[in-house]
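Appendix C: a fully annotated inverse folding record. The material below is reproduced so that readers can follow the format used throughout the book. The structure is listed first as tokens, followed by the designed sequence.
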């Protein structure tokens, strides 16, 4: 079973993917193509970054998941420790994933205030650029050093506890109702006073803890949102089914997607 993730080799997504891959790992340069590759059946499994403890949601992943018919089958949590990698101190540009640049904002401003920051598709593609060009530095996992690239500084993220959650995804037939957590995506397609309260009450009433609630613009009109909800309960549980049934009632103008239930894996 091939697992596709954000490449090239050496990204944090690649590190997370090795924890769930039982065979070959394939790489693409965008989260959208990972999700569409899994939804279209080209790959059996994918691994996408979802949320970082410093910088928050990876919005491209949330939007891609809302648009596709895939199942979330596992959550992978991994610590993120960034290193600054370059051929030497003589660089003018730091190229990395937008999340990595943001997670190291204070360090970069404080230590290299003159450097230009350039967002690229992944940390590893910034590292590749640095390997080819002495005027470019990358930010990525220190294991990417070598072959002409030095670690100029380690642990440059602005908070020591920097962790990212990834989802393993698979085709809709892999959707499971068992596991300690579940993910839903809800599009109410309506707006009235108390809407958000109605979205949350069915869970509170049944003592179901929410571990994430994120709103994303629906793209339909300003002020219209899609909600991403993670619950600490399985879809097999009667209380979860009852809560979702209530939400489906008030979201009858829109839709409710059950992404699946899963367990969490911590990877170092
Ligand atoms: O670019 C990568 O290495 C990724 O996998 C995305 C990412 C970037 C920064 C922190 C966590 C994940």
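Designed amino acids, in order:
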């Amino acid at each position: 079973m091939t697992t596709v993730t954000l490449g090239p080799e050496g990204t944090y997504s690649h590190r997370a993917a090795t924890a769930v891959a039982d065979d070959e790992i394939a790489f693409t340069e965008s989260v959208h193509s990972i999700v569409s590759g899994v939804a279209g059946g080209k790959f059996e499994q994918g691994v996408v970054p979802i949320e970082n403890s410093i910088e928050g949601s990876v919005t491209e992943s949330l939007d891609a998941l809302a648009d596709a018919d895939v199942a979330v089958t596992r959550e992978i949590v991994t610590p993120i420790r960034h290193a600054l990698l370059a051929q030497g101190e003589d660089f003018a540009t730091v190229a990395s994933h937008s999340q990595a640049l943001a997670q190291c904002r204070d360090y970069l401003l404080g230590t290299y205030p003159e450097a230009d920051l350039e967002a690229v598709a992944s940390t590893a593609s910034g590292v590749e650029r640095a390997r080819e060009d002495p005027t470019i530095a990358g930010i990525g996992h220190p294991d990417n050093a070598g072959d002409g690239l030095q670690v100029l500084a380690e642990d440059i993220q602005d908070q020591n506890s920097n962790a990212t959650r990834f989802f393993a995804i698979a085709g809709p037939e892999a959707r499971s109702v068992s596991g300690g957590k579940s993910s839903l995506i809800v599009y109410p397609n309506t707006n009235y006073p108390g809407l958000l309260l109605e979205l949350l009450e069915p869970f509170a009433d049944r003592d179901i803890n929410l571990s994430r609630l994120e709103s994303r613009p629906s793209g339909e009109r300003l002020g219209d949102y899609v909600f991403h909800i993670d619950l600490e309960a399985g879809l097999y549980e009667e209380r979860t089914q009852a809560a979702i049934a209530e939400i489906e009632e008030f979201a009858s103008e829109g839709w409710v997607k059950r992404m699946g239930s899963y367990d969490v894996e911590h990877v170092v």
